[in-house]
Amino acid sequence: MSESAASIQKKEAAVPEKGERTRERRVYSPQVDIIEKKSEIVVVADMPGVDEKSVDITLEKNVLTIYGAVEAEMPENQRLSVLEYGIGDYQRSFALSDEVDKDKIQASVKNGVLKLVMPKKEAVKAKKIQVTAQ
Fold first, then answer.
1. Which helix or strand (DSSP H or E) is residue 3 part of?
2. Which of 61, 46, 36, 45 shows the shortest CA–CA distance to 119?
3. Strand, helix or coil at 82?
4. What's the whole-model pTM score?
5. What is the rounded distance in angstroms from the CA atom of residue 58 to the CA atom of residue 105?
6. For labelling, which of 11, 31, 85, 100 has a CA lying 20 to 30 Å from the CA of 50?
7. Is 32 within a domain?
8. CATH number for the domain harbouring residue 64
């Protein structure tokens, strides 16, 4: 396998330091893009197989955790011969700074792509100060 193909393989998520997994399934760490704009921070996570019913987002003590459950679809009267794509859930956590307005976070999912929009607090936004001549 080439180096470029190896770099896009799914990466298994680490087991939380103070806990164990309750489901015997693989859990992957989804790849994300984080875009910071003047008024908001946008996180885009690739989570194939996840829809709005199977994703769970929690915010506790400034830690935002995304979790997506994926169920493998197997057609009736067929069995799996080869599995090249790992099936499993997704989990990733982010520490949020105080500049994020935690009450206004919005989440949406489309075609297995989760998008979080986290507006910045008004006090954090840069303000232009008018200069006048005397």
1. helix 3-7
2. 36
3. coil
4. 0.72
5. 11
6. 100
7. yes
8. 2.60.40.790
The pLDDT assigned to 13 comes to 64
Residue 69 domain-assigned (yes or no): yes
| Angstrom distance (rounded) from CA 128 to CA 107 | 30
75: which 2 tokens? 């057609």
The two most distant CA atoms of the chain are separated, in Å, by 85
Identify the bridge partners of residue 110 per DSSP, sorted by sequence position. Answer: 113
Q: Give the Cα separation of 35 and 43 in Å (integer).
A: 6
Q: Which of 2-6, 81-85, 97-101 has the lowest mean pLDDT?
A: 2-6
Q: How far apart are CA 118 and CA 42, in angstroms?
A: 6
Q: Using the CB atoms, write b or e for 85-99: b if 16+ within 10 Å.
A: eebbbbbbebeeeee
- Is there a domain that residue 113 lies in? yes
Residue 42 belongs to some domain of the structure: yes
